[in-house]
Each structure stands twice: as C-alpha cells, then as structure tokens.
Amino acid sequence: MSVPAPDVPPPRSFARNLVPTLAFVLLAGIVGPIFLVVGLSLPADDPNDAWLLPVGIAITVVDVLVAVMVAHHRTDRQRRTWELRTRGRRARGRVLSFEQTNVRINDQPQVVIRLLIEGDDIAPFEAQARTVVRDVHVPLLHTGVLPVLIDPETDAWEIDWEAAQVVSPTALAGSAEPERPAAERLAELDDLLRRDLVSREEYDAARARILEDL
Fold first, then answer.
1. Predicted TM-score (pTM) of this structure
2. Using the 8-state DSSP alphabet, how is residue 125 labeled?
3. For residues 113 and 129, is the Cβ–Cβ distance under 8 A?
4. In the chain, what are the domain boundaries?
5. 19, 64 in Cβ contact below 8 A?
6. Closest by alpha carbon to 197, among 116, 155, 134, 129?
7. Of 67, 62, 69, which is closest to residue 36 (Cα–Cα)?
8. CA 115, 137, 109, 64 torsion: positive or negative?
C-alpha cells in the first residue's frame, strides 16, 4: 500500500545545511581561525610566530572539509527520508533482534536493530540498521512488529516511528500476546526497569498483571 500524499516539506538544500554546520564546526575548532587571523596580522619577517599562519590555514581547511562532509551526509539523509515519505510504501518490520551499543547520541541510545521486512507485493528480506532510537520509542521494540516505509525499487527503508503506536508497560504485560511465556514478559519488564524506561510504580503494576495471568 502506498503512503498517502502527506504535506511533507522538501528537504533542505546542501547550502542551507552547510551554513549552520560550518558555523558550528568553526566555533568548535575556533583555534584554527584564531591562528589564521593572528598569523595574517603579524609581520611576515617574524620567525618566532611564522608557524601560526600555516597551522591556522591547515586547521581551518580541516574544519571546512568536516563541515562539508557532515552537511553532505545530512542533506543525503534528508533527501532519502523525504523520498520515502512522499513515494514510499508501507510495510511491516518484524523485530528479529535488537541490541544496545552503549553509545548515546544527543542523549538518546544507539541501537542495532535486525528486522524481517515484509508487506503486500514486497518479497520478505532481512535488514539491519544501527540507528538512534528515542528513549520513548525503545519499548516499541518489544512489541515485535514496527511500521516501515520502503522504496520497492531500491529497498531503501526506514522505521516509521510516527506511525508506531506507543505501548505502555501495562499493555506490554497484558493479554495482547497471551501465547508468550510469562518468564519472557517478566524479563522484558526487568530490562525496561533496569534502563529507567519505566517507573517503579509502572513496573510493579505490570508485573502484578503478568502474575495474575499465571
């Protein structure tokens, strides 16, 4: 099934991504521009500070190259996301496994997710991604199935977190999946509590509900 034509804003141009990225990189690596300005302002025949200009140029060039690479990556990612959201098709991603990498980016966990992607007129295939998942979305990985947007021509895909339904710990512990062993559901709750994704009150209520089903 094709995705309905949403009001999705077009991706930013490379220039619009480059300007703020370059400003941030130059601010973070400001020593390069400082050396460059100081080196240009000093007398050319001063041997003691002659190193400032070439070092300043080198650091500034590296800063610019880093900003260009980051902006290019960001532009390419935004373009792929826009293409998926405007002409992609909906599919299901069955969660085969997921694993924390113990890396946090912008205070959000990075997770390695392995999926079996399938859907109408889409041949099932396995895919794996190392991606940043918002803390509020981590419990969705325990539901077993995630909505996915896919380009059938290229097999490019991404998890459609906006279409995923938020699952409370109580629902996770409930009877939506009665065939799952209680021990497995309890282990998932223990894992959520250990990673501070649920409160103690939510954990106790969900655990009691699982035990009542025994």
1. 0.59
2. E
3. yes
4. 14-85, 90-159, 169-212
5. no
6. 134
7. 62
8. positive
Distance between CA 150 and CA 145 in Å, rounded?
15
Residue the block writes with tokens 């509900």? 209
Bridge partner list, 153: none
Q: Is 128:156 a contact under the CB 8 Å cutoff?
A: no
> How many Å apart are CA 55 and CA 15, to the nearest integer?
27
Provide Rg for the chain, Cα atoms.
Answer: 25
In the block, residue with structure tokens 């080198």:
58
Tokens of 156: 């490019």
Per-residue pLDDT reduced to its tens digit, 1-43: 444 445 567 889 999 999 999 999 999 888 888 988 888 888 7
Distance CA 164, CA 122 (A): 20
Lowest mean pLDDT: which of 73-77, 109-113, 183-187?
A: 183-187
Which tokens is 5 given? 């034509």
Strand 157-159, strand 108-119: pairing: unpaired
- What is the per-residue DSSP string for 152-171? TTT--EEE-TTTSPP--HHH
Q: What is the largest CA-CA distance in the chain?
A: 86
Decide: 123 and 105 in contact? Cβ < 8 Å. Answer: no
Give the number of other Cβ atoms within 10 Å of residue 5's Cβ. Answer: 9
Amino acid at 185: R
Amino acid at 71: A
Main-chain phi, psi angles of 35, to 5 degrees: -60, -40
